[in-house]
């Protein structure tokens, strides 16, 4: 793969590129409000042969002499992903050139790539920028003690990432985090789950984080939630509201679990939504 083959969009003076970290897998048993047989059929009808695979995207934003990364992938955690650094190099970007990393949230498939196997920061010169509620949640020992056993490792991965960048960790609450990049609160998935809207010239694009994990299921059926959502009800409300907004405004979207094409429009037909990828 060469740099020109990576999916990119030009938003005014900003160039945003989808950089794949690879895949993870999640059983349909993690989904609520849908029968696994129906979920499999929807994937099949969409031409997806590996029904339970979830793609992991990160996004490289270049402009104003800076290279900013949105999320850092799984980094091989649980054998998930791990292709980000290689694909960045193919895009002509060395990890030391990354000026800042914006996190949508701190689940392992978004922060696992911040640290290497020896515990060193992969991006030695990057500021780590994250919503203050996200840091507060993962660093709260009470939340850790209440977490189910399967989720406790998530706390350790998030804490390791925050600690590895502690001297260059910046938290925010709302508003513009860099010129042309504005934080958009997207509650439900995690305590501080955040999207980022790019605005430059007369163009805009929304990086919507984990609004969906299975796009071909959760876009047409936004009531379908996944066990990774901290508050499934609020996450579903946020998803429905956002689908209405981006389809009405014709606002292109990027998402961490869209396919490798990375960019899409949400099309609306009556009460039904669909994903139309940008080729």
Tell me briefly what this model is:
The protein is α+β, with helices and mostly antiparallel strands and 279 residues long.
Structure description:
The chain is of the alpha+beta class and 279 residues long. Helices cover 25% and strands 30% of the residues. It is built from 8 helices and 16 strands. The strands form 3 sheets. The protein has a 7-stranded mixed beta sheet. Strands 9-10-11-12-14-15-16 form a 7-stranded mixed beta sheet. Strand 6, helix 3 (108-111) and strand 7 form a beta-alpha-beta unit. The longest helix has 17 residues, at 232-248. The protein is globular.
Main sheet specs = 7 strands, mixed
Distance between the termini: 16 Å
Low-confidence stretches: none
Q: What would the average pLDDT be, to the nearest integer?
A: 96
**Outline type:** globular
Structural class category: alpha+beta
User: How are strands sequenced across the largest beta sheet?
Assistant: 1-2-4-5-6-7-8
Strand element count: 16
What is the H/E string? EEEHEEHEHEHHHEEEEEHEHEEE
Radius of gyration: 17 Å
Secondary structure: helix percent? 25-40%
Report the portion of residues in β strands.
25-35%
Given the structure, what is the number of helices? 8
């Amino acid at each position: 793969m060469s740099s020109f083959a990576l999916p990119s969009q030009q938003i005014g003076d900003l160039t945003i590129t989808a950089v794949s970290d690879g895949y993870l897998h999640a059983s349909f048993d993690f989904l609520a409000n849908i029968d696994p047989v129906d979920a499999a059929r929807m994937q099949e009808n969409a031409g997806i042969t590996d029904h339970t695979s979830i793609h992991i995207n990160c996004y490289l934003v270049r402009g104003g002499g800076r290279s900013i990364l949105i999320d850092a992938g799984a980094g091989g955690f649980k054998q998930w992903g791990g292709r980000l650094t290689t694909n960045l190099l193919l895009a002509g970007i060395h990890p030391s050139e990354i000026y800042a990393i914006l996190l949508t949230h701190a689940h392992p498939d978004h922060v696992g790539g911040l640290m290497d196997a020896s515990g060193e920061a992969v991006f030695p010169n990057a500021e780590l920028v994250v919503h203050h509620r996200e840091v507060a949640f993962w660093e709260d020992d009470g939340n850790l003690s209440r977490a189910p056993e399967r989720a406790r490792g998530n706390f350790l991965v998030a804490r390791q990432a925050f600690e590895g960048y502690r001297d260059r960790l910046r938290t925010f609450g709302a508003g513009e985090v860099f010129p042309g990049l504005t934080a958009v609160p997207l509650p439900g998935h995690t305590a501080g789950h955040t999207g980022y809207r790019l605005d430059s010239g007369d163009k805009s694009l929304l990086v919507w984080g984990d609004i969906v994990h299975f796009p071909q299921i959760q876009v047409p059926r936004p009531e379908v939630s996944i066990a990774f959502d901290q508050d499934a009800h609020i996450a579903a409300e946020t998803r429905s509201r956002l689908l209405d907004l981006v389809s009405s405004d014709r606002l292109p979207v990027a998402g961490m679990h869209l396919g490798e094409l990375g960019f899409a429009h949400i099309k609306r037909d009556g009460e039904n939504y669909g994903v139309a990828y940008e080729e």
